[in-house]
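Box 3.1 A note on notation
Throughout this textbook, protein chains are presented in two layers. The first layer is the amino acid sequence; the second is a token string describing backbone geometry. Keep the layers aligned when reading.
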Amino acid sequence: MRPTRQRLALARLLFEPGHRHVTAEALHGEALAAGVKVSLATIYNTLHQLTTVGLLREIVIDTGKTYFDTNVDDHHHFFLERTGRLIDIPGADVALGALPAAPDGLKIARVDVIIRLSDS
């Protein structure tokens, strides 16, 4: 990735506060509030590029609800349905009994567990 002024500014917003979960729309709002002139399309492109190079992890909750996680270590998530908040669960805290074999010619790259929480 070429380190453009916009990408560097977005990287600061993403990574300086520590591990976090962010949507493209939320990052766009943060960027505008910080005086970074950037389009939402550029935000999406940058987030996907950072995911491709392994600096972010994409978490798809539902169609139309995607988060980007700055923590790329082995972990899972609680998802609070009322607020849309994600909370990390250490990978070692989730035990899976068995996984099906991957189809011929494919391998399992990662297993993501999302535990949905509601108020009642």
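The chain has two domains: 5-69, 75-117. The mean pLDDT is 93.
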